[in-house]
Amino acid sequence: MRVLFFADGEWGAKTLAKVYKSGYEIAGVVVRYKSRDGLVEDWTKNNNLPLFKFKKINSEEAYTKLKALSPDVIVSIAYDQILKRRLLDLAKTIAFNVHAGDLPKYRGNNPINWAIINGEEKIGITAHVMSEEIDLGPIIEKIYVPVTLEDNYATVLKKVVASIPDLVLDVLSQIRNKTIKLRHINREEGFYMPRRGEKDEIIKWFDTSKNIYNLIRAITRPAPGAYTYLGKQKLRVWSAKLIESPKFIANPGQVMEVLKEGVIVKTGDTQILLNEVQFEGESNSFIPHFPVGTRLGLPYSDLEDYWPFLSSNKPE
Fold it and tell me: How far apart are CA 203 and CA 214, in angstroms?
């Protein structure tokens, strides 16, 4: 069975290696025009397999070259262009995508980050038939990886990357044995998530400690990191910890106590411990020991640009 891969990143490279080792014929590999890390391209070159890179995947050039490969199956993992119908139809049996989201929920962008932000206790990894609509093709197979309260983006990403190769092998086996059972997606049972931007990374100190904690752990390394300000200096918050604290009213974003392991900061309901931060432009992170009373948050002069992202209740 000839498999044509569209892939990028560590999960793409590891899946390719395992599928190749399992005896499937790799008809070719298409990488992103601007790859994030070059891992898939390097693996493909090292194994002397046909490698392709197209600025416009639906161009006549791409279609002609990929049609000549005569693939039985198309597999897409972290590829960043939408394949039109005539490309999908090059697969003699099926073209499927692997999406790190619990479809039909978390369609679209940054599904792992959004799931952690929403406090999910498990991450769905879905293999689904590719269509011209994003993440709406019928589901072939779905697995889950657990998410504990101590997990963050890095640890969850590691679990997801480790799980994808076996999921792809399972689906390929179902295709070969003709045992696939498709489950059609009901759009109304899920939702689409937009691409995250810089202003989505701002910490809203008036929010609950749980929501702030979920944001910080959801976009910590290797993501850009949540941030706040100390005066006019942007401060990335890489790590935080939920602590026992009663609910009380005070100034959200203010340092309430200094401990050896960091600073306790007031939130919209209770308090949270910040234990690793880094000033923008600095090369090293550190354990914060800002004095009690220190205010964290946006400089007032910058609030106008951020109000849609911060609150629906703008002060008079």
Answer: 11
As a whole number, mean pLDDT of residues 136-156 equals: 98
Specify the CATH number of the domain 198-310.
3.10.25.10
Distances (CA, A) of 161 to 10, 164, 174, 192, 236: 7, 6, 21, 22, 26
Tell me which DSSP letter residue 62 carries: H
The answer to whether 214 and 114 are in contact (CB under 8 A) is no
- Report which of 130, 142, 138 is spatially closest to residue 100, judged by C-alpha positions: 142
The verdict on pTM exceeding 0.90 is yes
Tell me how far apart the alpha carbons of residues 8 and 14 are, in angstroms, rounded to a whole number.
10
Q: 26 phi and psi, to 5 degrees?
A: -90, 110
- 313: confidence class by pLDDT, cuts 50, 70, 90: very low
Look at residue 198 in the predicted model and tell me its pLDDT.
84
Residue 302 binned pLDDT confidence (cut-offs 50, 70, 90):
low
DSSP codes of every residue in 68-124: TT--SEEEEES--SPPPHHHHTTSSSEEEEEESS-TTTTEES-HHHHHHHTT-SEEE
pLDDT at 298: 80
Domain boundaries, the chain: 2-193, 198-310
Q: Please say whether the beta carbons of 245 and 271 come within 8 A.
A: yes
Rounded Cα–Cα distance for residues 284 and 298 (Å) = 22
| SS3 at position 5 | strand
Nearest to 154 by CA among 119, 122, 116: 116
Task: Let me know the angle formed at the C-alpha of 12 by 199 and 96, rounded to the nearest 5 degrees.
Answer: 95
CATH number for 2-193 (one of 3.40.50.170, 1.20.1250.20, 2.60.370.10, 3.40.50.10420): it is 3.40.50.170
Could you write out the three-class secondary structure of 269-309? CCEEEEEEEEECCCCCCECCCCCCCCEECCCHHHHHHHHHH
In angstroms, how far is CA 305 from the centroid of its own chain? 26
SS3 assignment, position 110 = coil
